[in-house]
Design a protein that fits this description.
Blueprint (H helix, E strand, L loop, with lengths): L6 E2 L5 E3 L17 E8 L2 H16 L2 E3 L8 E6 L6 H11 L9 E6 H6 L2 H5 L3 E5 L7 H9 L4 E3 L21 E5 L1 E2 L10 H4 L4 E2 L2 H13 L4 E5 L15 H9 L6 E5 L8 H9 L6 E3 L7 H6 L6 H12 L6 E8 L6 H14 L3 E6 L17 H24 L5 E10 L4 E6 L4 E5 L11 E9 L4 E5 L2
Parallel strand pairs: 1-16, 3-4, 3-5, 5-6, 6-7, 7-8, 9-12, 12-13, 14-15, 15-16, 19-21
Antiparallel strand pairs: 2-3, 10-11, 17-18, 17-20, 18-19, 20-21
This protein binds S-adenosylmethionine and iron/sulfur cluster.
Length: about 475
Amino acid sequence: MDMDGLQTGAGRSQVRTRVILSHMSGVSPNRPQKTFYLETFGCQMNVHDSEKVIGTLVQEGYRQVETVEQADLILYNTCSIRDKAEQKVFHRLADFKKLQAQGKKFGVLGCVAQQEGHKIFERAPHVSLVCGSASYRNLPQMLVQIEAGKRSTGLDDRQTDECFETEFTARTNPYRGYITIIEGCDKFCAYCVVPFTRGKERSRTSDSVMAEARQLVDLGYSEIQLLGQNVNSYKDPAGKYSFAELLAAVGEVPGVKRVRFTTSHPRDFGRDIVEAIDAVPTLCDHVHLPVQSGSARVLDAMQRLYTREQYLERIAWMKSAKREISITTDIIVGFPGETEADFEQTLSLLEEVGYDGVFSFKYSPRPNTPALTLEDPIPDQEKARRLEVLMAKQREIQTAQNKKYAGKIAQVMVEGRNDARGQWIGRTSQNKTLNFTARGQVALKAGTYAEVAILSSFANSLLGEMVV
Ligand code: SAM
Ligand code: SF4
């Protein structure tokens, strides 16, 4: 997810992935060109998984198409972090059942696939492929099976030590190259489905991460984002680099101008990460550090295994850095048993930290998770009220935070243009959206950099003019 300000969990992203295959090679010329349609739901990890799935399919002789109607194979890469994700997937599959008569095949990938498993075949018998993210590396064999008219499942790899590493990644973001450095999660927070759907924590070797970083530069990327459910829990299987050292090493690859990383877990957030940001100018001065709640009691019930004080200690490290690091977070409101006083503690934490952006979510009960058995559920209406109060408070904080940028000059990476407003869209190192105008007829390319004088600010963005 792009962390550009005040968000709620209500509008989860749904991404139709468009592929840029210019750098891909080795597609078998003799296989018939089957077509596939892929829709992606959920977080940045899912979007990047889809980039790798697309690359794998293309390598296997498939061609990506824009509509379900054009496709031989229809795939959903699903997310089950919140809401009734599984119901949505079943509805969508039911809608498309009639297309089976046209010989189309269907596959469910990702978290809902892992969570619902064989139940998907029972409720949607027209589905041929059900595959969790820990089994993606076996996709080529699975494709052969479904092409032969058989069903295929990839559900048994949650204990695997292997990562989904492929040289055939279809990069869909034209200016930011993603690298997953760690998969899965072993933390088992009481509310979260991820450890059940994405398997145990496993890291790639630093050599393979560095090789991919160099490859991205060769492809023309100057911004790299390292990904992981808990990116900073990274443990190099070769024992060569700590996370902070890997971060610094990626930042020092010739040609790299910006390195981002997400998501960091407070428990594994060491001071060495802040020191790396201070030492290596290409590391962006932005850290996303989800806190979830400001109440020690709720943090304990959530099994986050840190206290408010420990979290604030990490914030203090960032605030004492030489560079001004922007800090964003995730918050869950309405966890079972959260009292008004607990909620007030979360509001006071917002004030104390002065976040640059908050992703806030209503607690959503998830299958298999320990929180399901907790008493004292919070009614949905009350969760919604708390969410609104929290967002209003954060909007005030962000409006005040952003005012300090007016009058400064920032370097942005150009991300596009808003023709209706006659503005370019840029992103600062601190991950702020900085919309700007440029005098005269300039044509800026996405992925290039510009110096912008910041003239004014809003809660979610800054406004400026390019410096010539
Ligand atoms: N690993 C990261 C961490 O621990 O901070 C978070 C990754 S999780 C995929 C993204 C966010 O989804 C979490 O930070 C949390 O705020 C939210 N989330 C996870 N489970 C949730 C649930 N059951 N209800 C509401 N929000 C949830
Ligand atoms: Fe979920 Fe907790 Fe793992 Fe984050 S650390 S992915 S919230 S279980």
